Amino acid sequence: QVQLVESGGGLVQPGGSLRLSCAASGSIFSINTMGWYRQAPGKQRELVAEISSSGRTNYADSAKGRFTISRDSAKNTVYLQMNSLKFEDTAVYYCKVIGWSIYWGQGTQVTVSS
User: Fold this and answer.
1) What is the dihedral of CA 28, 29, 34, 40, to 10 degrees?
2) Are 18 and 12 within 8 A, CB to CB?
3) Of residues 75, 69, 84, 83, the one with CA closest to residue 33
4) Is 88 helix (H, G, I), strand (E, B) or coil?
5) Residue of 7, 93, 103, 109 with fewest CB within 10 Å of its CB?
6) How many CB atoms within 10 Å of residue 40?
7) How many CB atoms lie within 10 A of CB 86?
8) Residue 15 — φ and ψ, nearest 5°?
9) Confidence at residue 91, expressed as pLDDT on a 0 to 100 scale
């Protein structure tokens, strides 16, 4: 089992920045890919960005150029630096980890509002 604890969400104005963190514990030796998804009201959950154990990254088109995913293997933590935030980035952001199974965090709310 892998447990995930997310932090860093909040309220930010358009154009602002936030940094999300997701710390993994438990069967961390099994972890391969770590990533972030988001779900806005009335919409399906969608990929934001993911990073493999080798550091290979994959971004949604909406995140390219504005968001950066990174990983600290020593701390078993994945980060999502979000810059130039837009109204449409408002959503609950979920950490996802792929190990022996797929694990999800509890979600953290990001609200972009003036």
Assistant:
1) -30
2) yes
3) 69
4) helix
5) 109
6) 14
7) 12
8) 90, -10
9) 98
* Distance in angstroms (rounded) separating the CA atoms of residues 76 and 66: 23
Residues 81, 70 contacting (CB under 8 angstroms): yes
Residues contacting residue 45 through CB under 8 Å, at least 6 positions apart: 37, 38, 39, 94
Letter for the amino acid at 31? I
Tokens for 37? 């998804």
Separation of alpha carbons 109 and 50, rounded Å? 19
SS3 per residue for 23-81: EEEECHHHCCCEEEEEECCCCCCEEEEEECCCCCEEECCCCCCCEEEEEECCCCEEEEE
Q: Token pair for residue 44?
A: 């399906």
Mean pLDDT by 10 residues, the chain (114 residues): 93 98 88 95 97 96 98 94 98 95 96 97
Q: Indicate the SS3 state at residue 21.
A: strand
